[in-house]
Amino acid sequence: MSDGLPMTPEQMALHLVFHVKHEAIEDLTRFQQVLADKNAVMNLVGPATVPHYWSRHVLDSAQLLNHAPDAKIWADLGAGAGFPGVVLAILLKHAEPSDITPHVYLIDSLTKRCVFLSEVVKALDLPATVINDRAENIKLEVDVVTARAMAPLPKLLGFAEGFFKRGAQGWFLKGENVDSELMEAEKAWQFASNKYSSLSDPRGRVVHIRSLKHVR
Fold first, then answer.
1. Is there a binding annotation on residue 166?
2. pTM listed for this prediction
3. Which residues are recorded as binding S-adenosyl-L-methionine (predicted)?
4. Which of 11, 45, 117, 172 sits between 20 and 30 A of 111, alpha carbons compared?
5. What are the tens digits of pLDDT across the range 59-99?
């Protein structure tokens, strides 16, 4: 979907099962500008993907809320440029009020990325906390642990194990090698899983992982 003409914000929103408020589009547009400016010096995302921001990055991230609409507390491992975590935080900021205040933990071990993420969180007044540490060191109770392009699934599950132990489910954005990654992961882990087609790339998959246990 990122090939051809760039997607507009309105076209992006049509793919989502929830209403994207105008205020959320405004924040996402501000994030787009910050990302474009910083990417010139930090190489946060592939330069060729910048013109396709709304499909390649926003829709790719936002589709997670199609699958987990009731999740309020998220942890994004290897948050990097802010996908999916910053997009989720923006959408949750402008979601309908609920009994639980939404929050996204943006976790990355690279300090310069955390500085960038902290600037974005402050500028957009997001319900998010940036944590500069390795994912496996973090002890948090969240509804969902997620990641995009952080590591192959066998390693990613190791990074996320602590979150699963505290009750989280996993919703991960994976590429065309997801089947081989799942087969490899089953050698070290016991879990239930489902795959869903990605809205942003026909080769991609959204993977739901639950009931994770290490194979002893």
1. no
2. 0.96
3. 78, 83, 135-136, 148
4. 172
5. 999 999 999 999 999 999 999 999 999 999 999 999 988 89
